[in-house]
Amino acid sequence: MPLHPQIAQLIATLPAPPEGPIDPALMRAGDEAHVAPLEERLPLHAVEDTTAGDVPVRIYTPVDADAYGLLVYFHGGAFFLGSLNTHDHVARNLAKETGLKVISVDYRLAPEAAFPAGLEDCHAVVRWAAENGEALKWDGKTLALAGDSSGGTFVAAVAAMAHDEGFDRITHQVLLYPSLDLDFDVDRYESLRENAVGYGVETAGLKGFNSFYFESGADAANPLVSPIKREDLSGLPPALIVTAEYDPMRDEGELYGKRLKEAGTQVTVSRYAGANHGFAQNFAWIPEYYTVFEETATFLRSTGE
Fold first, then answer.
1. Which active-site residues does the annotation give?
2. 265-269 contacts: CB < 8 A, separation 24 or more?
3. Would the pTM count as exceeding 0.90?
4. Total domain count for the chain?
5. pLDDT tens by residue, 237-288
6. Tell me, what CATH number does 223's domain have?
């Protein structure tokens, strides 16, 4: 299937990437300028800004109920972009479709806080959620993780950390077009070559965008940086891995799913035809791509437990 015509139309209007060094502050300001006004956002029973320990979070309660399953959400943004606001609509859609109480994590961003700061924040919030179940009205059952792009990196890494610590409360992991191999070797994955140019996120820009995360001296071979480098993938929670046909990072997500399955993990890998990287954030207004939230809900209801 060709690139969806509405996606192609929008991409055709995008300016060429700026030459010279990337300015994180400028790019963040640009992203924040596109956030929808509060009155235009999907209404839910309650939305609250608070803290999980020292980490800012936003908690989305879909309906009034006595108890809820929990979903901890890590936004994308190449580790240096994104916020509670830029991904507010993603969290709201997750809450609406899954019926779970969603905890969106405002983790520290690179370069101000490079690896492992953001990962540590995400890990801490998951532990906080489990330890504060009574206050959150947690049903004691579902504790899912979800993340898009670099947020998917954090999902895979936090799930692995929890396994190694003997923390067995995580029930599901949802990785939306995840970035799982941060060495960006174009010879490793066909999709890095096949989808290199013309689909929004471009292969040549990946290393520069993610370079801020490495300013602490992080190594792309570290499985907490590149989760696909982890040798033993056994014992991890059931996974839904969503990929996009026209995403340079498509193949690493699908390979990770294959390796999880070989290790005995229950896995669903779902490739969205005609879609590009970021479609759940940028193109959920297209009906066939909004279904990613419905598929997530179905996966969470039918898997594990």
1. 149, 247, 277
2. 265/233, 265/234, 265/235, 265/236, 265/237, 265/238, 265/239, 266/238, 266/239, 266/303, 266/304, 267/238, 267/239, 267/240, 267/241, 268/239, 268/240, 268/241, 268/299, 268/303, 269/241, 269/243
3. yes
4. 1
5. 999 999 999 999 999 999 999 999 999 999 999 999 999 999 999 999 999 9
6. 3.40.50.1820
